[in-house]
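Bit of a strange request maybe. I'm writing a small parser for structure token strings and I need a real example to test against, not something I typed by hand. Could someone generate the tokens for this chain?
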Amino acid sequence: MLQGKTVVLGVTGSIAAYKIANLASMLVKLRADVHVLMTENATNFINPITFETLTNHKCLVDTFDRNFNYNVEHVSLAKKADILLIAPASANVIGKLANGIADDMLTTTAMACRCKKIIAPAMNTNMFVNPIVQDNIEKLRRFGMEVIEPDVGYLACGDTGAGKMPSETVLLDYILKEIHYEKDMAGLKVLVTAGATREAIDPVRFISNHSTGKMGIAIARTAMERGAEVTLVAGNVSVGFPPFVKVIQVVSAKDMFEAVAAEADRQDIIIKVAAVADFTPVHTNDEKIKKKGEGATLELTNTTDILKYLGEHRKEHQFLCGFSMETQNMLENSRAKLEKKNIDMIVANNLKVKGAGFGTDTNVVTMITKEEVKELELMDKSKVAEEILTYIIEQRG
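Reply from user aminoacidic:
Good idea to test on real output. This should exercise your parser:
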């Protein structure tokens, strides 16, 4: 995933330093080339050998350390870095960076780096809210560095408040947002639907389907990492929402239609992945429903076809993509939907094919436009998302 990317991690003197060992391990598993720089104080919280074992690189602490191949090490590392994350970032190092002080390997390398720099403050609450520290943080932002807001929680010192470093997963999300993909979707607004809608029968029961939202969420995340401004309209899902996207949660098909219709005009690309319930239940005997449903009947009325509505109200610049899940005549049925709904592309799959459909981490899809049909082999849904978005960009010209 990150093969060919160089990630530099700066670790300062904070109890949260132990978390960076796990982050380094996560990055190495994604095939990133990881280098760790530590301040002298940081070595009191975690041994450099830990990072050297994980990354297979010498952990640099001393600017004048002679125990490595000859070159100007801080300049050499700064030149090849794709991203620099300083986490945990102490008040001391934040102050140095904000005021141009470079007196150790970490701050010297940071000054030489021209790549994106991300700072994750971690310290006692009273230190974090100190006006001097806050002013230094604002300086870093003005200088183009991204600052991750610390979590609020119980701190190692026993206080509760702001200053807790976010989890390793959050730190990884910030790194992936910057370097996972080239930003070929920068400037585009993308709306994705995901998950299953639910139509209430009564206060307890509902009609739904087996959609988990995995495919739509994978597309939303990939579009975000490729630089798009993403809106995710989500029904019931089984996985967490991707970071850095606008999420609108809905329950019924009507809710989803209204959310999509409200957002549609602003979008460049709309991808409808959600499995919307095709019918809304309507009770024909409310009194009997109250009596535990004895003798009551239930009628179904058609819901609004979201894709058809989008096709009828599309803007000139928009690209519309839908999904088609079939059990037979996949190509014929999907081509008919493409024409009927006046959209640009259908992503079709056959639910009878192993590895495709609901609830899996993989998918087997066929991308259909008016001009061509492109079949994809079995692959992880994150890879399918990448292929779909690449194909859409190509089709848009």
